[in-house]
Amino acid sequence: MSITIKDVAKKANVSASTVSRILNNLPGYSEETRQKVEKVIEELGYQPNAIARGLINRQTKIIGVLVPRVSDLFAGEILAGIEEQAQDLGYSVMICKTNNRTRDYLRTLYEKRVDGIIMVSGAINPDSYKEIEMMNVPVVVVAAQPNYPKIPSININEYQASYDAIKYLVEKGHSHIGMIAGTKGDDRIKGFKDALNDAGITVTDHMITYGDYHFDSGVQGMAELIENYPSITGVFCASDEMAVGALSCLYKHGISVPEKISIVGFDNTSAAKKAVPPLTTVAQPLYDMGESAIHLLLDPSSEGNKVYPHHIIERDTVRSLRRK
Amino acid sequence: MSITIKDVAKKANVSASTVSRILNNLPGYSEETRQKVEKVIEELGYQPNAIARGLINRQTKIIGVLVPRVSDLFAGEILAGIEEQAQDLGYSVMICKTNNRTRDYLRTLYEKRVDGIIMVSGAINPDSYKEIEMMNVPVVVVAAQPNYPKIPSININEYQASYDAIKYLVEKGHSHIGMIAGTKGDDRIKGFKDALNDAGITVTDHMITYGDYHFDSGVQGMAELIENYPSITGVFCASDEMAVGALSCLYKHGISVPEKISIVGFDNTSAAKKAVPPLTTVAQPLYDMGESAIHLLLDPSSEGNKVYPHHIIERDTVRSLRRK
């Protein structure tokens, strides 16, 4: 096609720079002008070439997003927030599922000349950090430990969220509480231990099992807790996925929830409300955190850690042991 | 950075064309050479510019994927297949959540000069088809009715899959069977009706309710069926999400599954095995279908409809009413 921006400008009776501003979602024209220009673009069949434009503007209007696993509900809800906000601001999103190849993907995104990169739920290792420093592209981390202060991050207070979940179980009269944890030694485990200690309950090793945040490890972790800690009445899981796995395990063993064992999840993904019974959980505002990541990414002055509030959503998996 | 492909070639003692072939994932060099060149690229800090390369090669090595909702498990499993296969072939994937703006997204992807577009689970409307014809970019449709024969598609036989699900319930001794359907008048509803007719069961309106494939509509649909069809013992749901909603509704009403009511889902997403009780469902090979989409897209001779086999996965939500 040989139709150029000048042809559009001429036919719409505006300057070429106005057409360019409209194409690039920049301000400085009336709504009426925008409609007129878009109509002409439609009539002439003009197709702006984003690649050539990228070379001139040094903007591709693409934001790269690295996620551990696309099929994960957790990442999915953050992605929904990222995508809708990106779309509103005229950006496209390129999503890459990283598995363990974060550094390769960072390089690929850099080669595509993305305008920024959002890393969802993956701690940055030294190799990736070196790559990020070399790239000179804005990077924001969402829902992962902010282990490099120069990289802005969005999070909740994981320690306090976990502490509050245990305090909630204690207040409901539970004193035999276990945890299906994720990453060893993380803030959620610290919160679990401190809350129990503050309630005068001694923490021992058999109270904690370790999973990988996914369903199967929740099934396995729950089976271990029943075995190692037979008097258990309450379980805190470091993800909803593992909590749903725990429910599945207890169903198979014929142990009723919450009559025999109470369960608290973490994240408030859509899996929590869909569980049988519906799952009591610690909510992270995942969608909002995704939205916020775009703003932090596009604001050149941004730095530091943005902490969102958490709260407990009460559904049907926790029973009060207090006498009424 | 002023390091060029020639600098890399010189230092690695190979031709510039070899370096280019390696960068573009084309064949024609030994594994040893590849490793040597990649080491030099690393040492020199050479960054190939994908945008400039895109202008020369007319290849961006980006595949655009349109999906109705990223957080959907159904789409997530197809996406996993697409992404892993794309990665193996040296392509990046740009995922766009379309809502109802399919045509706008097609245009955006075209502007980004993607090498091909995969549309997941969304019927093509005449507007989108017009856009696709104009674009001259390969398009493949996955898990949606192939309503334009010129566009290659990947599917299962939806009619037969639904027919088989009902036949399965009938063989288990059920004769009061309802359906929570998705799209009005689709092949799944035809399969439901024909299977019942062939079993000598008269189909009436109160046997079918309509949802939107998502959880809440499954809750609602199940509530309607209990109300309209009190003698019901078996329910076929047009998606696992709606089946999980049905389980949730029955739990709330204190109606046990499968003792009182049997449930069959559709898709075999990860939600099926995670349900309480684990859900019997019709499996679509979603991951494989996603993988296949990439191959169909990159093969210029491809056309027509590729049909994958379906099968029933028996878990714990169907009870046999036959005497043993």
TrEMBL record, chains A, B:
SUPFAM superfamilies: lambda repressor-like DNA-binding domains, Periplasmic binding protein-like I. SMART domains: HTH_LACI. This is LacI family DNA-binding transcriptional regulator. It comes from the Bacteria. It comes from Metabacillus arenae. The keyword Cytoplasm does not apply. InterPro entries: HTH_LacI, LacI/GalR-like_sensor, Lambda_DNA-bd_dom_sf, Peripla_BP_I. The lineage of its organism: Bacteria, Bacillati, Bacillota, Bacilli, Bacillales. Pfam families: LacI, Peripla_BP_3. Residues 3-57 form the HTH lacI-type domain. Keywords: DNA-binding, Transcription, Transcription regulation. One of its GO terms (molecular function) is transcription cis-regulatory region binding.
